[in-house]
Batch of 3 targets.
Target 1
Amino acid sequence: MQATELVAHLDEYLRVRDFTDSSRNGLQVQGRDEVRRVGAAVDACAESIEAAAQRRIDFLIVHHGLIWERPELIVGAHYARIKKLLDAGINLYAAHLPLDAHPEVGNNALITRRLGFEVEASFGKHQGIFIGVCGRIATPFSKSELLQNVRQLFGEEARGDMFGPEKISTLAVCSGAGAMLLPEVQAAGIDCYITGEPRHSFFHFCKEHRMNVIYGGHYATETFGVIALAEYIQQNFNLPFEFIDVPSGI
């Protein structure tokens, strides 16, 4: 498949132009014209790029790309990453907020469904676009049951600050650094909120407002979207993919 065709399809499928984002979503580094193998990784770090080159990947999809709102000088480690991409002929495609928000392959919708909740509504507006979701389940979980299920999904390191109601039937999810939405969660009266990483300034806010919050890890909560998007490409364009797992532990 031609890289230009794949980029055009993904730009439309993910609605990248609809988002005001600090990430420059879409094709960030141009590689070879023909795509035969797809890679998926959370971060466009040196380790991910090196692994993609070794596996002869032509098109690398990442959640956290190399180009953000403030251009970075192409020197040092930044230069090394870009040089490796160019030398290996790898197309680098970044999908940040569009891959959080997408109803089918988005991190937040996928997490909600994996935990057994039905996606009920969008949640967490950012620059005019909702990036999170709310879900509901008919038979409520206890706090301990939900936390156990989350740890099975993300890993035992998932942190639960379970100060809220004992029974959980409503859930809000925003992967990554979603702690800024905690006041919105509290105002909406949602039983539990799942995001990636905690913020110290919100610990007592959650405790004093009797909220249930689970932090699954920034990296862990953002693996779902890139994998699902690569699976979508495989199913629709018959291009094999590999997931490059480079966890940060955060």
Note: Residues 3-98+223-243 form a domain with the Udp-n-acetylmuramoylalanyl-d-glutamate--2,6- Diaminopimelate Ligase; Chain: A, domain 1 fold (CATH 3.40.1390.30).
Target 2
Amino acid sequence: MVLYRLQMPQSVLIIGANGRLGRVLASAFADAGWQVAAHVRREPAGHARPGVRFVRAALGDPAALAEEAGRIDVVVHAANVPYTRWRRDAMPMAQGAIGTARRLSAVLMFPGNVYNFGVRMPALLEEDTPQEPTARKGHLRMEVEQVLREAARSGLRVAVLRAGDFFGGPGRGAWFDLMMVKSLRSGRVDYPGPTDVVHAWAYLPDLARAFVMVAERRAALSQFEVLHFAGHAVTGAQMIECIGAAAHKLGLIPPDAPLRVGGVPWPLLRAGGLFVPMLREVAELRYLWYVPHRLAGGRLAALIGTIPHTSLERAVEDALRELFQR
């Protein structure tokens, strides 16, 4: 008699599944056949899709969250808060994710960004590029990654997947939608820096699929792994051209109307930051638009093979359709 061993579906806990990245991650893992425990801090907008269930235990109570999540192979710490709350909340949230992953004996994944490298960052960011943050948020992110590294030294397997600025996916909350295309229906795009400087972008559906592929190859990860997602490294002029083409195609601006290009009043933002904390936090990241940078993706490609990549034209079109036509 032949005995067949039933293979349990792989399972993931997405911490912060109500957020922009978390929602895209939950869909990507579910599409790949994973069982998804979607941790939410507020009531979700709708019902969970097949393969996804909501969990509501507090991140600050890792024991309760682990118990509610059940059997989990991978934890993705995708929870985020507004810039003004990073100093207060970033480290406690990271500690909560670490504690939860420990209790579940799961691999912990974390989305890194380029803030760690500061204004003197080189044009090509490798996984071992020295981190010299110059902004408050860069120092905070470096501190969080150091805590993750220390957790790995004590036995937790951790993977940081670093990417550029997000665009695409549901919701709003990134430079692309809050600043650049907010006046698109009026025929204007506002670009935050010189249009000949290369800037690193990450189309969220592509990044989410890369998370899934790394999770599926977690047995090949080192104890503490840093991987860079190259995404789209393009000049402002290239991004503006794609926005204009997509805006005309989608009927957001008339076919014969030119796209006007404006800038961002950084001096006013800095001045306003004396009274409005969020403006202060945004203004200190001005350098990201003036210092050319891209992420090297060789180590990620060596791990997962072909990296998910939607053409810039298609990605911008889909991002604008999500923003303006839903």
Note: Residues 86-104 form the longest helix (19 residues).
Target 3
Amino acid sequence: MRVKTIKKILQKKHDEFVASIEDEQVRNLVAKNSIITGGSITSLLLGEKVHDFDYYFTTGETALAVTNYYVDKFNEAHPGKQVKVVEDDTGRIRVWIQSQGIASEEDPGNYKYFELDPNPANAEEFVDLAMNVLEEESAEDKPRYRPVFMTSNAITLSDKIQLVIRFYGPPEEIHSNYDFVHCMCYWTSCDGELVLPNESLQAILARELVYKGSKYPIASIIRTRKFIQRGWVINAGQYLKMCMQINELDLKNPAVLEDQLIGVDFAYFQQVINYLRERKERDKDFEITAAYIAEIVDKIF
């Protein structure tokens, strides 16, 4: 697809999304301080279907205002599923969801982990749900761009919008948390410009996964599965890069392990995190071991 066409598509999507925001202050912040990046631009360049548009924000003020706005919207629509916003001393913004770690407008009892389904043909459906991806447009009797799914890191709206709240800042700062170079194309709402780094374009044309380093290398290794299923390739050296970064992590520290697992598609590992929390509450001297992780992973998966 041509660059000019992609810019028009992104601008149109952004304008529709912004127009749906009822609070004027939040609307103005989102209009000026948004970044669209990640897989949507890759899909448009390849002429493929866009699963969702990943939004990041250039300022902490915008990220916090957006999070508060949609958490309030979700709570108003679902009184029995109250969630709240937490901002820590480092400025990190989280959505706090009691017990399950996820909140959805659907019955949480119907939420499935795709690994638990006995029919492999259904795997892609559950992968998409776990990735917070909603293919369908809003039904006529429901408002567009409403919050439908939440984790601590992101808020998914209907109509293919995902608001990532874990990071904010200029594009180069956002992409310092990214892993694969092909995901680093971006569009900025302040000027409507589309930036396509040469290195990213080369990787996209070759459908090759090139690892640039990430704060969440465990997530990166797991993410390779979905790309390989879509026909992308990766060489052994890229896995070595990820393994070297994992080697620097203290995964026996529960806080570090939890932070790394939340970096993965959240639903996959929420039960692992819950097991560890419960065990630690029962036994303050408990230490995480590879054998114990293997035991609970086999139970869950």
Note: Residues 60-77 form the longest helix (18 residues).
